[in-house]
Write a structure and sequence with these properties.
alpha+beta; glutathione-dependent formaldehyde- activating enzyme (gfa); 2 domains; eight-stranded mixed sheet; globular; binds zinc ion; carbon-sulfur lyase activity; CENP-V/GFA; metal-binding
């Protein structure tokens, strides 16, 4: 089996699996699941629009993301008021704020977390040192279901019952040299 098919089946199975059945090996040959779930991974109909809880800030992404992620770190647990944050990483040229004026939130540190000034929804992050990318909070997109997380980070801090369909897991963050491989695998999964 080619690596791409292997990964796709593994990912499809996890997207469709009940939590107790999330162990991918059980689904290694689940071809039916693969076909049923393929549309979940396909990202078409671009550009996509999005907005905050009160809709005073509106967003647009013009291209598909280069990566989709869940982060289990305690900082993301606080900021998302949930078990983990969800995000989709876009090249900066693909991203536009089409309405409203987001303000800085979170720790006001090197990573710039932008929020709606009225409803305070956490909208997107401009990570320190990588100006070429914007990390958009997936649930701010009007079609969040299409952006299932491909990788998850900071599992060392995750809540013990928190599960995602991610097929790549990292105790903290992947090494910088891992990113080309991860982006390539994600692109191949979502490019059909
Ligand atoms: Zn708002
Ligand atoms: Zn985090």
């Amino acid at each position: 089996m080619e690596t791409r098919d292997y990964l796709r089946i593994r990912y499809s199975a996890r997207l469709g699996a009940a939590p107790e059945a999330a162990e991918w090996r059980e689904y290694r040959y689940a071809g039916a699941s693969h076909h049923k779930q393929e549309s979940v991974m396909r990202i078409e109909d671009l550009p996509r629009e999005g907005g905050c809880r009160c809709n005073r800030v509106r967003l647009r992404v013009a291209h598909a993301p280069v990566m989709t992620m869940a982060c289990h770190c305690t900082g993301c647990q606080k900021m998302s008021a949930s078990a983990f944050s969800l995000s989709a990483l876009f090249t900066a040229d693909a991203f536009t704020v089409t309405q409203g004026s987001p303000v800085i939130g979170g720790l006001h540190g090197a990573d710039r977390h932008y929020c709606c000034p009225h409803c305070m929804s956490w909208l997107f992050t401009r990570p320190h040192g990588i100006d070429g990318f914007v990390n958009v909070r997936t649930t701010m997109l009007d079609s969040a279901a299409d952006f299932a997380p491909f990788m998850e980070t900071w599992t060392c801090e995750k809540l013990p019952w928190a599960l995602t369909p991610a097929v790549e897991s990292f105790a903290q963050l992947p090494a910088p040299e891992d990113f080309p491989r991860l982006m390539q695998a994600y692109a191949e999964l979502t490019s059909h």
